[in-house]
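note to self: the first set is below, dont mix up w the second
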Amino acid sequence: MPKTLITILIAFFTSFKTEVPDSKRASDVRLKLWPKLQKRLTDGGFNSKSELYLRIIKQTDQLEIWAKKGNRFEFFKGYNICYYSGGLGTKTKVGDNKSPEGFYTIGAGQLHPTSQYHLAVNIGYPNQLEKQKGYTGSAIMIHGNCASIGCYAMTDDGIDEIYTLLYKAFTSGQQKINLEIYPFKMDNQHLKDFASSPYTAFWKTLKPAYDKFEKDHLPASISVINGQYAAR
């Protein structure tokens, strides 16, 4: 292939490269933390360019980061959620003070490196299902400062690591990162324990995706059918 054509093709595909938002604050954090995180990934048998998957379990106050190892995701690290509001049950409208539950995707443009809450990541609420149902609200984040209403607030140290890992995943080529948010571990016993909740019918629609990930360590493909999540 002629050298000029190769140059043109490189320039063409480079023009589609996703820009990842950055700031001095985020850059300073990255310079400090990335060598340690990279070593932890390597020591755990992960590639430092591994794809990521995120899962939140409200009841245990945990945000989990899983990284790709081979053809499946393996647990990398968990972070304590400092605060979320409204208890169990998903957000449906502005002012209900609740934090969302369901299935979301995070793209590079959802990183907020100059947030007033230190660093932040927009989770993508409302998603397709929530828009169909007419749910209201916006700017629902995972962020620092350990205080919030409707978002998932982390310590600044926690969001520093989470943000750095997501930034590196995007700059390594990952286009979208799956985020799944559950009220609790979606086993039969927990569903039985919370059977009297008005959210039970909704929670049952989350369980197939939870079960698939527990079995295969791969996120389910989520669609919306007849106003409900469908996982496969």
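second set (the one i keep forgetting abt)
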Amino acid sequence: MKNHVLKIFTVAAIVFAVTFQSQASQIVDRVIARVNKEVILLSEYNKRVEPVINEFNRLYEEADKEEKLEELKTELLNQMIDEKLLMQKADEEKIEAASEEVNQGVSEIRNRFDTEADFQNEITGQGYTREEFRKSIEDQIRVIKLINDFVRDKIGPPTEEEARAYYEENKEEMVTPERVSARHILVRIDGDVPQTTARKEIDEVYAKVKAKPELFNQYAEEHSDCPSGALGGDLGYFARGEMVGEFDEIAFNMNVGDISEPFLTRFGYHIVKVTGKQGSENKTYAEVKDRLKNLLYQIRMEEAYEKFLTGLREEADIKRSPL
């Protein structure tokens, strides 16, 4: 199926977070963008970009990392400009968020934390006061209402004919992939368990498994560091790409009932037992109809949203300064 970048317009997904400049800041600030009569300050931008850069540096090590990072930073500024445009449009349309709606939004996020202290620590850690956090929720709700009024409500659901046509055009990709079910035993490698120690432990477990393979489930419960150990190492069915590459390579080249020798992934040492296999098969239109209609609707939403944003950009006076 063709790949599409899909934007889901919910409070959780459209995070138009409002950032606030600290009154006590001693940093000399400057304007890096003007959006009509509003400005974006370097301090606002840095507050947004710092955690993104930290996460980027943690995940990526490519040779062209710096180029990708510059693209990411530019994209973040563009996102902040779009947020200004959306808020200005919400102001122009006099779109408001009721107090009850804001209370509900705050409560939904609060409920993700075990205690009030954890919740407050998260807010403080992000650099917000309680009032600023509430204001950000209010602004998110106003933007969602704006999108609903000017985008969502103008999009009709896909017809049966459109969904059927999409199915026929992409029929070769309407396939349930090959899947394998397996159990495994993991001896994890981390700061407390060096690789040599883990290797010795997995070899000892493998000797037990080899001697009594019928007790694999029991050994998984006794020795595995994976949460699946409580289930006898059961991982259920999975398709290629759902596990790390080394795990896939082993599991998909084994027969049902086979038990692997110990092998290494970034998680540690594994022993795998394949318990089932399912070949790939074509999906009928009836099986994928609802999913296709939802996909087509989301594609329409994205196209309409981008068109709406483009219109706001074209009508606005936007000026950028070098970062």
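remember for set 2: The radius of gyration is 26 Å.
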